[in-house]
Amino acid sequence: MASVFLSKVSTPLDYKKVKEALKKAIEKLGGIEKFIKKGERVLLKPNFVSPRPPPVTTDLRVIRAVASLVKEAGGIPIIGESSSAMTHWWREGMTTRDVMDLLGVFNLAKELNIEAVALEEKGWEITEIPDAVVMKKAELSKLALEVDKIIPIPILKTSMEGGGITCSMKVLHALVKPGTDRVRWHRSDLWQKLIDLMKVFREKIPFCVVDGIKGMEGDGPIHGNPVDMNVIIVGDDPVATDAIAAKSMGFEYPLYEVGPISLAHSQGLGMGDPNKIRIVGASLDEVKKRFKMASCEIIAPHFENVVVYEGAADRSCLAWIKFTLYMLKDTDLFDELKRRNKKLLFFVGLNPPLPEDLNELRKLCEQGIVIVFGDCATFSTRNSYWLFTQGDLKGKVLLMPGCPPFATAQQATQIREALGLEITEREKEAFKYVPT
């Protein structure tokens, strides 16, 4: 039977308490020696998605505690990460090494006398994936393929695109090369992609450690709000660990509510039914809080003067509209829209209700900036392509292709430019570079 230990960490928090909580949890699951043998190379896989503090990224105290316990068992811990493709190209424009340096990861590794690596610096290997459904072959981390064990160390977060949460299974997405296969299968098929990835690495995972010191609710994995949980969740089955983590955030039926858990359970990669998981330590009632769930909906007044017109739209496109809007919230865009009484009008999905009549289109453009978002919408309006790019409506109707459109920095700049707002040199550079 899969086991998950819920370990409450008393406040005020310090490293000693975090390590004691983690050690207690692992002892109750059989002890660190059960999982890690002497001389084994162990990849510690935290979440360093971007250069932001917890709960966007894993608390270094948790990573320190895991590394110390692995060393005590005679293992060789290696901290490894590859930051989000968004971080590399479309948001901060930073390498994984930059992110890890800013977060203090290399200093931590030096103190512990262990290695910390940016996975892209170790290379990628084309790998056939047995029994895969969508990702049958992919460029995967050479280091992850070479090590003996992998310990996921995610944060307890809700997610707009990870099936509701981002946890032990989602944190493994960084083992896929960012410039190629990381950005493929990124719609609802992302969920099955994560499960296909699990088919490669499941046998290497001895246990998972979920950093629940501060969780994140709302529009995770980046733009949510912190929640004090003071809990560490340790499980010997990544699917079961994620199921109990989801329960702790308020998902009553994670097997049915969280796509990756359902798929992993049904494909035999772990136990997703909380009723068949042994919970040790604190009870769920002691740690559980009702998180605000992530949403792909564009909710006023959070994003004033924004209207989304849907055709048959994938939820991922809606999420990436929202990511683009979050980029714009850091600028004067929304104040300017309000001052001018203008709107951003997004048309997304197959056959969105964009008028075909030129006069109707002109009237619509008088309301603000019309944005054709995503490949489906671009294809559906292909007969008007010349009109949007060369004709009467050039600069008034913006085309943002992609499946989904990831280039949030460039997209935000494109919108600001269409409104005639001043574009900084950094924005201009970002707008010029869209990786293929």
Describe the protein's architecture and organization.
The chain is of the alpha/beta class. It folds into two domains: 285 residues, 3-Layer(aba) Sandwich (Rossmann fold); 127 residues, no CATH class. The protein is 36% helix and 21% strand. The chain is built from 19 helices and 16 strands. The strands form four sheets. It has a six-stranded mixed β-sheet, with helices on both faces. Strands 4-3-2-7 form a four-stranded parallel β-sheet, with helices on one face. Strand 10 and strand 11 form a beta hairpin. Helix 18 crosses helix 19. The longest helix has 15 residues.
SSE map:
Layout: E1 3-8, H1 15-28, H2 32-35, E2 41-46, H3 60-72, E3 76-81, H4 85-90, H5 96-103, H6 105-112, E4 115-118, E5 124-128, E6 137-141, H7 142-146, E7 149-153, E8 155-159, E9 164-166, H8 190-201, E10 208-217, E11 225-235, H9 238-248, H10 254-257, H11 259-266, E12 278-281, H12 284-287, E13 306-310, H13 315-329, H14 333-340, E14 343-348, H15 358-366, E15 368-373, H16 375-380, H17 385-389, E16 397-400, H18 408-418, H19 425-432
Helix pairs in contact: 1-3, 8-11, 13-18, 18-19
